[in-house]
Amino acid sequence: MKQGGRAALAAFCLVAVAQAATPIKLGLNYPHTGEYREEGLMQKRGALMAVEEINAAGGLFGRPLELVDRDSASQPDRARRNVDELAAEGVSMLFGGASSGVAIAASDQARRHDLLYFGTLTYSNDTTGKDGHLNMFRECYSAWMAARVLGDYLQREHADQEYFYVTADYTWGHTTEASMREFTGTTDTERHGSVRVPFPGARYHQIQEAVKAAADSDAKVLVLVLFGEQMVQGMTIAQQMKLPERMQIVVPNLTLSMVEQTGPFIMAGVIGAAPWTWNVPYQFEHPRGQRFVDDFSERYRTRPSTSAASAYSIVYQWKEAVERANSFNSASVRRALEGHRYSLLKDEQYWRGFDHQNVQTVYALRIKSRDQVMKDPYRQNFFEIINTLPGDDAAPTHDQWVAERRRNDRPIELQ
């Protein structure tokens, strides 16, 4: 071979090696600070664990994954700027959440960069409902799905009782309260009162006044549509007012981090819902999920929360869709996701084609007593599963989704 040919071949090989070693960047847009920071920490831990496992197994197309993150602080405008920065850094996909307002804003900005966005914690119906679009996929369940499994239980156990709602004043709070009212038969707002709490940034006295309004009512069921630190404060105030002694308290979306922050003594007996908890793989015998819980617990000295499992699952789901598509192109990866069925940390789940909602079994939970909680080596045996509902029964139907889109003057196909 002539010297010029050898030089060209050597240069080609060097380029190929460099490309193979170039990391594939994944952009995590999560709350490192602010009211949802504990949920954000869990997301980052779950994502890092998935990235490191995949890299140890050879990466993606022989290239390592690299997690690049930004702090959203649960602020939509900041989340949009983060998306612009992450896109400029060359990320191949984006994921994150904890606030539905953030997830919706960030996913819309991701669409401008032709990047897919995966919602981790974003429970508002609007995420895959009126605000859904082609580039948004939601791994977790929706407020509707949570309300369905809770309503199924509460209608049996607390029929014809008065409810009172204390609700965070943003898209997740609004759609959660609406869904809970529908599936518990409490749509009469005169009989079943409510107070809204500002989000973000509610003052302690504002939450206190809202809980006092519930205490002054005749309600037998108090629904705290609060999340993160707001829920912690709301439950603490409710305990100080001794409301658990005369009301069943419902927190529609429960997470391990929120229960731990509040404390098992205060949270004992509270009812809520979740798409996954760390005891699900053991109770229903899912070996891959058990392995995830064991590895996560040993690594971080804590049980994984719903948000950790969601972020972990998203990294794997995106990676496998890229492999099926044999492409990083967003449209190709999207098509590889739509309709795809899989089992990872629980029973079968699938990505629904018409709205990109992840359809999966959902669970109603009750927080165990303190003595039961303490039996776990990590003192986090919080969740008793009191009701389950298959995903197809919990999720809104196509006709219901279309009706919601039409009510909000949105196209009846994702764009």
Automatic annotation (TrEMBL):
Organism domain of life: Bacteria
Signal peptide range in chain numbering: 1-20
InterPro entries: BCAA_transport, Leu-bd, Peripla_BP_I
Entry keyword annotation includes Mitochondrion: no
Entry keyword Ubl conjugation: no
UniProtKB keywords: Signal
Domain Leucine-binding protein positions: 23-369
Family: Belongs to the leucine-binding protein family.
Name of the protein in question: ABC transporter substrate-binding protein
